[in-house]
UniProtKB/TrEMBL annotation:
GO terms for molecular function: G protein-coupled receptor activity. Residues 1-198 form the G-protein coupled receptors family 1 profile domain. The lineage of its organism: Eukaryota, Metazoa, Spiralia, Lophotrochozoa, Mollusca. It is a multi-pass membrane protein. This is NPFFR2. The chain crosses the membrane at residues 25-43, 64-84, 116-139. Keywords: G-protein coupled receptor, Membrane, Receptor, Transducer, Transmembrane, Transmembrane helix. It is found in: Membrane. It comes from Mytilus edulis.
Amino acid sequence: MPLEIVDLRFSYNFPSVIACKILRFVNYFSSTASGLVLIAVAVDRYRKVCQPFKTQITMTTAKIIIGVLCFASVCIAWPALVIYDINVVNISSAPGLNGYDCTTIRNEEYKVYISIYNGVCFFIFIGCITTLIVLYILIGKKLCHLKKFRFSSTARKSANVNYTPPTSESEIDANFRRFKPVVYAKQPTSTFIPLFAN
């Protein structure tokens, strides 16, 4: 981020060739390393969720993976030290008003290599995005399956709470007393007797 601020501050008046090369190298390195580390995190989550009983990534293994990914990022980003340079650009229609921009070399012999490098970076980007999408889709499907299995297991347990009939005489007697129907005594019917007859 600080180097990007410098690039924006000196858009057409970039101060140094070395700073230009370092800026582009750091951009490529950080972008590539971030993508590869995200894939490593996704793989670790996939193994934790979808393959919990297999060997997991330990702290030592994680450090080794990070080191390998950083080395791979350096190998991918180093051409930026070669193909970027300070180029003179015309910033106005007035003749003689030029600026200095940190961009790829304009020489004809470098165009093929620049195109190949950009194509390789593009395919690496597509590969990273595809891998992340596939891994997280598999993780999501597994989590949904586990959620449905837990819900069905809970419903099955609640449905399997059956009534156990009494077996011994004491249990039968206790059960009878518990559910013995209440019999209400029949009330006598009252008869109305008139006191005064016509």
